[in-house]
User: Which sequence fits this backbone?
């Protein structure tokens, strides 16, 4: 039952090679005390020569097996001391494997400890330190979470119209993020892919914009039997995806560049059905699914640099994937016009639309974190700094955060920031 599931390894079906695991034994997992709770604690772990040696040994074991090493994916918590571990790991990778791609995903669960000042304080500090340090040593960095906010002020979690998930269960939220992550990374993981991990990063990280936002539609709302142009025409003004990077979602946000992946949709051409007739929309005049999606993105995000991929393989949702789907979904994850008369079979796969965007929404995210910290007296909890972070270093990190946020500022955000400054 879902209530008995605590961590991802409770459902692990594969046998891990001993070289693929390095256990940190100095701290307890998810306990009331002895937790890895501060950025400085995580950094200090990887300053230990013994830890570095063990980590490098495991890393070299796998690197030597690669015929063509693209780079590294780093998934790490942002809200606790693992942000410090991830910062040092990416620094190590950057130093030893310069020229290789490093894509880093900063993960945060949906938080419930609203009233605990110290935990919220630590979470905010760890998040800011993690974003700045991880992005500086990575080719691309993406905060990934279903939490509505990374700041002090709590916001409701992200909701999806055809999912009935429990945001308090990491088992549920991590499954949604896994479907998005599996889709987002497909362009450089498939054998048929032309581009590499580093190529993807370079299309999005120009002008210092090394932080990107993730969006996803899980599942992509496709009526059974509808063509891709029909589906997209229903969303001409607004893409049917949700922001997975913990920021107040904006209806219209400037996009500088994006990589979009649609999977689980039939790639057959529907152009022949309109021969001799007037197509109902410009999208119906294009032959391939790739062309249709590309034209749709150009119409919704004019001026943005967009790359698109359409994959026929859907996202598998067989056990242990949680069955939290709407009864309106078929076994293949397509929408029905009305609920079935009888309980439907388990959903075995779903279509997914996901995107990585270099977007102005990131100015809102980064600027709001800076504002939250300005309201706090960071000297009220000296224990955070006693864990290994100097106060001057933290102030320097804040300056880097502000510089990073400026990379995403547009005219609208500039006016908004000036108004906020005047009101303060």
Assistant:
């Amino acid at each position: 039952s879902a209530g008995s599931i605590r961590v991802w390894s409770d459902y692990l079906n594969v046998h891990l090679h001993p070289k693929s695991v390095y256990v940190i034994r100095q701290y307890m997992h998810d306990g009331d005390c002895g937790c890895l709770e501060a950025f400085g604690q995580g950094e200090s772990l990887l300053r230990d020569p013994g830890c570095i040696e063990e980590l490098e040994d495991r890393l070299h074991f796998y690197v030597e097996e690669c015929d063509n090493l693209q780079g590294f994916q780093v998934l790490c918590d942002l809200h606790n001391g693992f942000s410090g571990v991830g910062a040092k790991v990416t620094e190590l990778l950057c130093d030893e494997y310069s020229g290789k791609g490093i894509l880093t995903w900063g993960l945060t669960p949906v938080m419930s400890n609203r009233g605990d000042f110290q935990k919220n304080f630590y979470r905010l500090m760890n998040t800011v330190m993690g974003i700045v340090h991880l992005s500086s040593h990575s080719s691309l960095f993406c905060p990934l979470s279903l939490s509505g906010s990374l700041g002090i002020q709590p916001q409701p979690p992200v909701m999806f119209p055809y999912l009935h998930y429990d945001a308090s269960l990491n088992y549920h939220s991590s499954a949604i993020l896994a479907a998005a992550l599996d889709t987002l990374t497909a362009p450089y993981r498939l054998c048929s892919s032309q581009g590499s991990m580093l190529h993807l990063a370079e299309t999005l990280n120009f002008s210092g914009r090394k932080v990107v936002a993730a969006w996803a539609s899980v599942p992509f709302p496709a009526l059974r039997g509808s063509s891709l142009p029909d589906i997209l025409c229903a969303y001409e003004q607004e893409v049917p995806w949700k922001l997975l990077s913990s920021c107040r979602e904006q209806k219209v946000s400037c996009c500088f560049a994006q990589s979009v992946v649609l999977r689980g949709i039939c790639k057959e051409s529907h152009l022949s059905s309109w021969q001799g007739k007037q197509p109902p929309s410009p999208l119906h005049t294009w032959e391939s699914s790739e062309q249709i999606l590309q034209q749709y993105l150009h119409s919704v995000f004019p001026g943005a640099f967009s790359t698109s991929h359409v994959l026929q393989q859907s996202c598998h949702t067989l056990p242990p994937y949680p069955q939290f789907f709407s009864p309106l979904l078929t076994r293949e994850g397509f929408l029905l016009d009305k609920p079935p008369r009888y309980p439907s079979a388990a959903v075995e796969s779903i279509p997914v639309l996901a995107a990585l965007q270099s977007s102005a929404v990131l100015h809102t995210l980064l600027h709001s974190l800076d504002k939250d910290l300005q309201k706090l007296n960071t000297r009220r909890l000296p224990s955070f700094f006693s864990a290994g972070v100097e106060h001057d270093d933290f102030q320097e990190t804040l300056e880097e955060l502000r510089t990073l946020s400026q990379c995403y500022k547009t005219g609208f955000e500039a006016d908004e920031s000036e108004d906020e400054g005047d009101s303060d």
Summary: The domain at 214-268+282-362 is CATH 3.30.1330 (60s Ribosomal Protein L30; Chain: A;).
